[in-house]
């Protein structure tokens, strides 16, 4: 593809995402669930025929994928790169303010899915704890690797780290959280951690949104295994975030 074709491709994708109804459709699919055109029409607040036209355009540009099961037709994001692009646009789309006050609904801000890994306050706290404890090591390539103690931690959780490192995707990487404006853990390691949390019922996942709910067992287990003090509620997390930001600024 030459430069001119590349520019045209970017403008076409940008124009497709810019349409408000299509934006709602794409963002609703960021939880990794596939949905019917009828469900997506309700999400986008458009008619069924209009939703079908939008989905046809998104499919043409390889932003969504169609899954046919018998008489049912479902749509999902084409792949994780689409979710990553949307997450980045959400960050850009929020004007920076001197003091950052998240406006995301409480449940989504505290914990949610970001395609196939965990996002929100909980995920950012986990990410920061892994860095602080030396379990995750930063490199110059915007990727992470596990230290020996970090590998032992994840192996102890039942996550086959060596198998994850052979997958055709980044093993572990920072993913900028659009509500917290700080990174959470992405890559195959982040995806494995979310699946573990769901399997062990540390978190429960909404069927009709990206929200995750932290269970009592999850609070206990994640607190103990990651040596992490979790906020009692989101308002406390916000106060802690504001205090941390103010304190950092005052010491510069």
Helical percentage: 40-55%
N-to-C series of helices and strands: HHHHEEHHEEHEEHHEEHEEHH
Uncertain stretches of 5 or more adjacent residues: 95-104, 233-252
- Write down the overall geometry: globular
> Spatial order of the strands in the main sheet?
1-2
- Rg to the nearest angstrom? 19 Å
Summed up, the helix count is 12
Calculate the terminal CA-CA distance, rounded to whole Å.
47 Å
Mean pLDDT: 81
Beta-strand portion reads 15-25%
Give the biggest sheet: 2 strands, antiparallel
Structural class: alpha+beta
Total E-strand runs: 10
In total, how many domains does the architecture comprise?
2
Could you please describe the fold and organization of this structure?
This protein has two domains: 3-78, Arc Repressor Mutant, subunit A (Orthogonal Bundle), CATH 1.10.10.10; 97-250, no CATH class. Strands 1-2 form a two-stranded antiparallel ribbon. It has a two-stranded antiparallel ribbon with strand order 3-4. It is an alpha+beta fold and 252 residues long. The chain is globular, with a radius of gyration of 19 Å. It contains twelve helices and ten strands. The N and C termini lie far apart (47 Å).
Report a brief summary of the structure.
The protein contains 12 helices and 10 strands.
